[in-house]
Amino acid sequence: MAQVKKAIVRDAIMRAAFDLFSQKDYAATSLVEIADTAGVSPASLYVYFPSKFKILWAVLHQWLAKEMNALVTDFITVYVDTLRILRLSIGEIQLELRFVSILITFFSWNIFNDYVFHGPMSSEMFP
Q: Rounded to whole angstroms, how far apart are CA atoms 62 and 36?
């Protein structure tokens, strides 16, 4: 009958390995130390991981996945903030263009009115 693997035991082994690899290093850490720190027997350790390298790989994989998730989250935050700034900038530019358009229309209308009612046409054509 195959032994049932428990996630709690696997996590304890990986946590112990991470701590020991961080304190010492990979080469200086033994499987017996990892098993003792995790609270399991060395034989049980081999049920979950066939070698120290596989433990290292599992620890690195978990760490890398965590770091990649953090990186993606940071990227999305920066990307969304950039879009907000760009949208704000585009909105400000559109607002400025509308204001300029209104000013041009206003001044064009005033110039037209001045020309028609107060300019040469009025004095020459309507004495």
A: 21
Q: To the nearest 10°, the Cα dihedral for 111, 114, 116, 119? A: -120
| pTM, two decimal places | 0.58
CB 35 within 8 Å of CB 42: yes
The tokens for 96 are 């400025």
Secondary structure class of 96 (helix, strand, coil): helix
Residue type, 1: M
Q: For 74-118, how does the pLDDT look when each residue is reduced to its tens digit (9 = 90+)?
A: 888 887 777 777 776 666 666 666 766 776 676 666 655 555 555
